Amino acid sequence: MKEDLRFKRTEYSLKEAIMELSKKQDIYSINVTKLCQKANINRITFYTHYEDINQYIQKLEDEYMQDFIQSIQPFKDFKEDPEAILNRILLFYKQDQSPFARHFIQISNRSIDTITKMNLNSFFAIKVIFTITGIHTIYHRNLIDHKEEIVEIIKNVFN
């Protein structure tokens, strides 16, 4: 039990540290030494839990995508209410303070397996990924003023 609590504290410290460091530099340029210094943990402790920084970042990416997928999970049928899906995805982006936000497309491409685990057929999963990455691009290029057109595009993709 004591070790479980220590692990949770270590995980919390690492996550807080990487979030703080990512405000000043790209998350993918953070190294183990900087992360451990900021988290105030020993590098040996880090390597007890993770093979390297890439494995740790992959874990965080997976958690990020799980959060995203949970936010759209109620909408397994994109055809029924594309506007609700669009609004849910936009809400996720607006509330997103993660350092992964700007890398969303790359992460989603690596997370296709996660999306296909939503019990969707593979062609439908491709449509979902296409729609999500399209909305992501539209949002980050400030083209969201054309919401009605975006809803129409989503309807057409799923018909």
Walkthrough of the structure:
The chain has 159 residues and is mainly α. The protein has two domains: 2-49, Orthogonal Bundle (Arc Repressor Mutant, subunit A); 61-157, no CATH class. Helices cover 70% and strands 0% of the residues. The protein has helices at 2-21, 32-39, 43-49, 53-72, 82-95, 104-110, 112-116, 122-140, 147-157. It is elongated and about 55 Å long. The termini are far apart. The model has no long low-confidence stretch (mean pLDDT 77).
| Portion in helices | 55-70%
Q: How many β strands by DSSP?
A: 0
* Contiguous runs where pLDDT drops below 50 for at least 5 residues: none
The largest sheet is: none
From the spread of the alpha carbons, the general shape counts as elongated
Number of helical regions:
9
Q: How far apart, in Å, are the first and last alpha carbons?
A: 52 Å
Strand content: under 5%
| Run of helices and strands | HHHHHHHHH
Structural class based on helices, strands and sheet pairing: mainly alpha
Rg computed from alpha carbons, rounded to a whole number of angstroms: 18 Å
- Rounded mean pLDDT score: 77
Domain module count: 2
Summarize the structure.
The chain is mainly alpha-helical and 159 residues long.
Which characteristics define this entry?
Arc Repressor Mutant, subunit A; 159 residues; mainly alpha
